[in-house]
Model the fold of this input.
Amino acid sequence: MTAAPAAPAASAAPAAPSFGERLEAVLAASGGLCVGIDPHPWLLDAWGLPTSASGVRDMGLRAVEATAGAAGIVKPQVAFFERWGSAGFAALEDVLAAARDADLLVVGDAKRGDVGSTMDGYADAWFAPDSPLRVDALTVSPWLGFGSLRGTIDRAREVGAGVFVLAATSNPEARAGQTARVADADGTSRTLAASIVDQVRDDDQAAGETRLGSVGLVLGATVDLASSGIDVATLTSVPVLAPGFGHQGARVSDLRAIYGPAAGTVLVSTSRAVLSAGPTGMAGAVRDAAEEVRSCLA
Amino acid sequence: MTAAPAAPAASAAPAAPSFGERLEAVLAASGGLCVGIDPHPWLLDAWGLPTSASGVRDMGLRAVEATAGAAGIVKPQVAFFERWGSAGFAALEDVLAAARDADLLVVGDAKRGDVGSTMDGYADAWFAPDSPLRVDALTVSPWLGFGSLRGTIDRAREVGAGVFVLAATSNPEARAGQTARVADADGTSRTLAASIVDQVRDDDQAAGETRLGSVGLVLGATVDLASSGIDVATLTSVPVLAPGFGHQGARVSDLRAIYGPAAGTVLVSTSRAVLSAGPTGMAGAVRDAAEEVRSCLA
Done:
């Protein structure tokens, strides 16, 4: 008598959707606006909130409320929560929980970067399914080499999360270092930013993520990408997180001019422009900003 | 009748000692050993502690106790506390308070790096006198340019704290990026690591910190510094935080060979080697390691 075939193992269940797949769905449904939750002390003042952990919690919760239904993505800036120590992180956990409840995609803007064994700690903090800090994607820094992010990227993919690797950032002081030349084996060279871009794109392709990858890039909208050695035409399947719009000087109407064929997968980050509208005006400001991004790509 | 001279304003009180001055005193009194508090999950297991916020608190507190009286400097690795969210940060706050009570110099190993206005949040988190996370010095990342750290460095100096800027880190994946060539105005070029080194040294000199500066460097002991374009002979007044000893391969007995005339201001970071001794053996292991560092410089 032949044994019956074993029941399918639990691991044969359909894989959870990848971050790239989830992001693609959000972009299609709500467009590319990404609302930065940056509770600067001066914004807390302007909102009539205390400069404290309680103030950043309130601003974060109201920003989530104002975004829900008007846009699909929020990006809390961890520094302004960390400012208040463990109480600030407790506030951030509440904001993250509210964002999850509101079905928003959450990018934790933490820019963590360290050696691989230490990055494991950060990866667990931001990706472990039992972590109160869990997010859909995290910004990470490649100062210690793209290779130092290997374990973090793998951990993210395992749980359907993603990372955005800092490549060409929007602040002018970054340019000298990010355009330093990295020597290639064949005697040619690339900019450091371009070498990060290439490694990110290759990583998504190697993972078979040909529609939209789970490993994205931070490419500032104020950066002259071509003169930084970055060809946006090669990035149509790589998510791009784009700071630099608004007070930093880039215009949303230039989205296609800046990112070319990759414009459709850009997360257009805005923060002051919508937070400055205050607690009562913010929902309307987010609705308008989201519509502006969609109409620029229509 | 002439008015009596006004009493000296409160601001005329003698300035608090700088981080460089405080570090110099610690190095003279206790030597260069810096005990890394890295509560990896496998170390928690080995110590019989739970892998939880409570476990990292216990390991951190016992590590502080084991270091007090045997060495002068501790360096908690923030990632392993952040792993547990706000509860992990509360544990870190307890560990930092215990380290302050034990008169240890504390380097927060957080490797934070962001644009200037965001770095203000991190600077307040780690340097504000009312912050539960306050430390004597913080590790910071220059991926966004040395200039992005300007406000953080100024804030640190204001309160007698310091920073260690990542320049040449000890992990092999970092080398390609950190040795990328930065073009100088005169047509020559330097490695990215060397350009950070030069900016740090110049910053200490510009601040008049000619004995020991408040802005230091992370220069891994496993790095071939000369081939990275770094001349250690120019660093005698710059604090150097040196990972890479022990399991990463560098030997404390090579301290002078690696850092030359700057060896006397190196913080020799050790973590696994002393934490692996377990809760009962750690104090002895720290004592031995501290003595080894001192004897190599005698």
Chain A has one domain: 16-297. The first helix of chain A runs from residue 19 to 30.
